[in-house]
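[Automated response] Your request has been received and processed.

Submitted sequence:
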Amino acid sequence: MNAGSLSSALQSFLLSSRDAAVIEDGEIIFDLRSAKYSISGERDKCLLHLWSAERNVVRRVVDLELKNDVLRLAVLRLGQEHPSKLEICRERDRRTPSARKAVRSVYQSRLRRALERHFPDFKLSPLSCAMDLERSFSPVYARGLLRKWQKQLCVLGVNQDETQASVDAALTFGILWLQSCREKQGAKSVIEGLMLILPSQRSGLARERMRCLDPDAAKW
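Generated structure:
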């Protein structure tokens, strides 16, 4: 395919895939619900430019194939002589339900151990990743409470294997969890605030949202 045909096919797919994920080297590098893109087909080259708050990449597209709602691209990186693969998937998370559940269960256990290690004076309630449609709680997030006497902290964590959109939305779901806990506890105890546990390299947008609410909130 020439550069013009590649550009047209790529543009057509992306226009109908606004919730898609971009995968390279087995990692989701962009979630198109929040990331931006541009396509250039000039000078016999089809260039795909993708950017977000976390990264900025340009790939030269030399071939493409559409199969099962996945657009497989053969791309060249800057200075690269041989093409590598980049995939754009309409379905952001291609793991099976059982695989997602297994990863979240492992993360839940690791999060519990980390909290017990770093907060030895607090008692940790059982963590949960259960879906609760009534309260808009997603199984993506592990939720719990840290308690010391009559004071408590809500905890919400998300593991590094979830989509970037899930990491970015952690503050929204954390606030929902905080509100639910305060309503449930009532005057029994004081819930002082919310602790978010985020993947360190992918938490930029969530931290910026926290700073908008409280300049000191994202220091930890």
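Summary generated for your ticket: Confidence is low (pLDDT under 50) at residues 212-220. Residues 122 and 148 are 5 Å apart (CA to CA).
If you did not submit this request, please reply to this message.
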